[in-house]
């Protein structure tokens, strides 16, 4: 099985992002490796994780008046629109789309999220916490996730 783990070169050094991205990588694995009977539930959980992650990123972009906010938001919106547009019960189409999420995620992380991480560091937010929440553990701001079953 090809696993879509967060590799060392995908770590941005911002705990808030790195923890959320690891959770997303794990959820992508669960979605791709899980049985058809669990696909829709796993897809719904991935969408929820993505929505949470995107919301936090967008709040951070607003807080620092990030110049590339529009294009970054558009990337988020396109992915969510595609996932929300899947027909319920069409597992075959869902799996095709799901297989494209990991490559998109890797490119998005290497480009848009890396640029955002640099902007956050330059703005004095190296931990990535929203203003006034610097003391909030990153785990409280990461996407919700359920325990990941062993997939061997």
UniProtKB/TrEMBL annotation:
Location of the region described as Disordered in the Swiss-Prot/TrEMBL record: 127-152
Segment forming the signal sequence: none
Segments forming a coiled coil: none
Listed GO MF terms: metal ion binding
Keywords: Iron, Metal-binding
Record's compositionally biased regions (Basic residues): 142-152
Domain Hemerythrin-like positions: 13-111
InterPro entries, A to Z: Hemerythrin, Hemerythrin-like, Hemerythrin-like_sf, Hemerythrin_metal-bd
Family of this protein: Belongs to the hemerythrin family.
PANTHER family: BACTERIOHEMERYTHRIN
Protein name: Hemerythrin-like domain-containing protein
Species assigned in the record: Duganella lactea
Organism lineage string: Bacteria, Pseudomonadati, Pseudomonadota, Betaproteobacteria, Burkholderiales
């Amino acid at each position: 099985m090809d696993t879509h783990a967060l590799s060392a070169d995908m770590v941005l050094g911002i705990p808030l992002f790195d923890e959320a991205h690891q959770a997303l990588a794990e959820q992508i694995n669960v979605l791709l490796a899980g049985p058809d009977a669990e696909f829709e539930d796993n897809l719904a959980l991935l969408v929820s994780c993505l929505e949470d992650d995107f919301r936090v990123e967008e709040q951070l972009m607003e807080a620092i008046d990030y110049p590339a906010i529009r294009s970054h938001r558009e990337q988020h919106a396109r992915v969510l629109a595609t996932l929300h547009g899947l027909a319920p019960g069409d597992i075959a189409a869902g799996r095709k789309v799901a297989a494209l999420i990991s490559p998109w995620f890797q490119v998005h992380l290497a480009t848009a999220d890396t640029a955002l991480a640099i902007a956050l560091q330059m703005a004095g937010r190296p931990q990535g916490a929203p203003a006034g929440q610097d003391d909030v553990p990153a785990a409280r701001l990461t996407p919700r996730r359920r325990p990941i079953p062993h997939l061997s």
